[in-house]
Specification:
Elements: E1 2-9, E2 15-24, E3 27-33, H1 34-39, E4 52-54, E5 59-62, E6 64-69, H2 108-114, E7 117-122, E8 130-138, H3 144-147, E9 148-158, H4 161-167, H5 177-200, H6 208-211, H7 214-217, E10 223-227, H8 230-243, E11 247-251, H9 259-265, E12 269-271, H10 290-297, E13 301-303, H11 315-324, H12 329-334, H13 338-344, E14 361-364, E15 375-380, E16 383-387, H14 388-391
Parallel strand pairs: 1-4, 1-5, 6-7, 9-10, 10-11, 11-12, 12-13
Antiparallel strand pairs: 1-2, 2-3, 5-14, 7-8, 8-9, 14-15, 15-16
């Protein structure tokens, strides 16, 4: 496929006002200005190209990435039957794997594709201090094993109100924030010892719970930590530093109150959901200004809908509202592309329009962060999976 005459927002620090993308074998083979293509005098056309897509000045960018959600693991329209998000039978469940529960037939995947969203980080909820492993996956397909980009992608942990409310009435730890922190510390200490012993001995009996922590202890994947309140954010940072593990600060609702401390920690933030009600005490300081404050402090920042808390197709709008409250325009786009890819550790394949990366591309008739903008094409692995020009705005949800 050859995409021509597009305004390319590469997320590499430059905009090609009249550019082209050459896609070959599901990858971006070449990115450049149309004048460069004309100078080639038809060279690319002899390389087996099957399709030319003239987008006539449309807004072309890497596929949008949702860095934290529960798509497919909390299915729309199915109530409790489709809710596999939280295993509330015990508070510490590191061995759970999202890949075993995500249903690719969740209609929310189609909504995501229609919004130009091509990649998602999805997994367990926040009822447990330790909830299990996330998976990063593409939004197109029927077999999650083929859709997965990174698995496991993160280990879910949670602080604050949710673990307290899930277990406080069951006479089971945790009923306090201290209890939650203790359980996570205890798990990390056990995991550290298990991982070291496993490296020293090939005959150690397998422990699936402890084995799941191995990638975290080796810093291959981060703890993906549910934190809203400032004190919970600092507790998560304190524990991560204590055990020398990587961390992402998910939600980070009061992050703007301690932006310098977060920047000093070196850990990134995934901000949101902000397009929702202040339904809990710990989100009383919720604001779209948080992402901008964190960015100005030097924190690598992405934006989330936390689908289904806010609907996933409103992710570009959430970025736009953050821009309205002070996040720079380009950073708004980065918060849902390259920054999200870096935080999710898939930036080697996704998040920018660069040669060699997956051909996951979103094409719009304007800036996707603006309300009236419409998706023209969504492309995943070099294949058009949504064609807004042909199907129109009223296509039935699959």
């Amino acid at each position: 496929m050859l995409i021509i005459n597009g305004k390319l927002h590469t997320m590499c620090g430059d905009v090609v006002n009249n550019g082209y993308l050459w896609i070959k074998d599901g990858k971006i083979a070449e990115v450049g200005d149309m004048s460069r293509l004309e100078e080639k005098n038809g060279k690319i056309s002899g390389e087996g190209r099957e399709q030319v897509l003239d987008v006539r000045g449309a807004f072309v960018m890497p596929g949008i990435i949702e860095a934290h959600c529960h798509i497919g693991i909390v299915e729309e329209k199915r109530g409790i039957i489709g809710d596999d998000c939280n295993e509330c039978t015990e508070p510490v469940t590191p061995g759970l794997r999202a890949i075993d529960a995500v249903n690719p037939m969740d209609p929310a995947f189609h909504d995501a594709i229609k919004a130009g969203i091509t990649g998602v980080m999805t997994g367990p909820g926040s009822s447990n201090p330790v909830g299990g492993q996330f998976v990063f996956m593409k939004t197109q397909g029927r077999c999650i094993d083929k859709m997965a980009v990174l698995e496991p992608a993160a280990m879910k942990t949670a602080f604050g109100e949710n673990p307290k409310t899930a277990y406080g009435d069951q006479n089971v730890c945790p009923s306090t924030r201290m209890g939650t922190a203790f359980l996570i510390r205890q798990e990390l200490e056990r995991a550290r010892k298990y991982t070291l012993e496993q490296e020293d001995s090939q005959e150690q009996e397998r422990d699936l719970k402890m084995e799941a922590w191995g990638p975290v202890i080796r810093k291959e994947i981060p703890m993906k930590t549910h934190v809203h309140r400032a004190d919970d954010i600092m507790t998560a940072i304190r524990i991560a530093k204590e055990f020398d593990v990587e961390l992402t600060l998910d939600h980070c609702t009061e992050g703007h109150l301690i932006a310098e401390e977060i920047a000093e920690s070196g850990f990134p933030a995934i901000v949101g959901p902000d397009l929702t009600a202040r339904s809990k005490i710990e989100v009383q300081n919720l604001s779209f200004k948080t992402a901008g404050v964190l960015h100005r402090a030097g924190v690598l920042t992405a934006i989330t809908t936390d689908h289904p808390v806010s609907l996933i197709n409103y992710l570009p709008l959430c970025a736009g509202l953050a821009v309205k409250e002070g996040l720079p325009m380009e950073e708004g786009l980065k918060a849902i592309t390259i920054n999200a890819a870096r935080i999710c550790r898939v930036d080697g394949r996704l998040g920018s329009l660069e040669e060699g990366k997956d051909a996951d591309i979103a094409i719009f008739n304007g800036n996707p962060m603006e309300t009236f903008t419409r998706t023209l094409y969504t492309i995943i692995d070099g294949e058009i999976v949504y064609d807004g020009e042909e199907t129109g705005r009223d296509e039935d949800v699959i």
